[in-house]
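Reminder: ligand-aware prediction takes two inputs, not one.
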Amino acid sequence: MHELLIDTFGRVIRPDDKRRDPMWTLVQGVIGARAKTVVSNDNTDRLLSEYGTWEKVAEADLGALTRTLQTATFPAMAAERLQACMQEIVRQRGSATLDHLEELDTAEAMAWLERLPGVARKISAGVMNTSRFNRKALVLDSGHRRVVQRMGLVPAKADTARAYDALMPVLPSEWTAADVDEHHLLGKRLAQTICRPKRPDCGSCPVRSDCEFA
Ligand code: SF4
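Here is what comes back for the chain with iron/sulfur cluster:
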């Protein structure tokens, strides 16, 4: 599947300078529900330039925070979730940092993240894989998950955590964290262009011979 996707879309490699601080990546995920990546990236940068630190975000006036996030898909919900998440990190760690996760293995670090308000498997995998942590963890957004469900690689109704648990053990063992990241970016590309939610274009799909739906 990976090779067929590369044949179709070319290499999709995240440059090292796009690997952000883990706190930035966490915030980008928490405020990013149903929003375009570029909008969530801009909002995360704006939060940092307006407030200066994530501790200040934890203490901010909720109305002001909501206004800062006005281009999010659900600004009030994003502000509330973000503040609850920042406050919980400060409560547990004394400051808004994820540095302690360096000491944990990836599964333990993800379990810690998933106990924070507003954080589920997609976000915890994103913090592990796409930030400077650069760990092996497959990010599954709704599009990529739709692809693997239709293909029959995971059960049709698998949620993200279940799909992650099914797929992680069968990724090639020699893959690096960057390979895992590229696989996600390719799966996302397939979901956006060919395996769309309605009327997937199976006739043009590079993985149709392995797909149960097709
Ligand atoms: S063959 Fe069709 S359903 Fe299967 S992954 Fe491709 S576009 Fe999606």
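The pocket of iron/sulfur cluster is lined by residues 147, 150-151, 194-195, 200-202, 205, 207-208, 211, 213-214 (CB under 6 Å). Residues 39 and 179 are 26 Å apart (CA to CA). We will return to this case in the review session.
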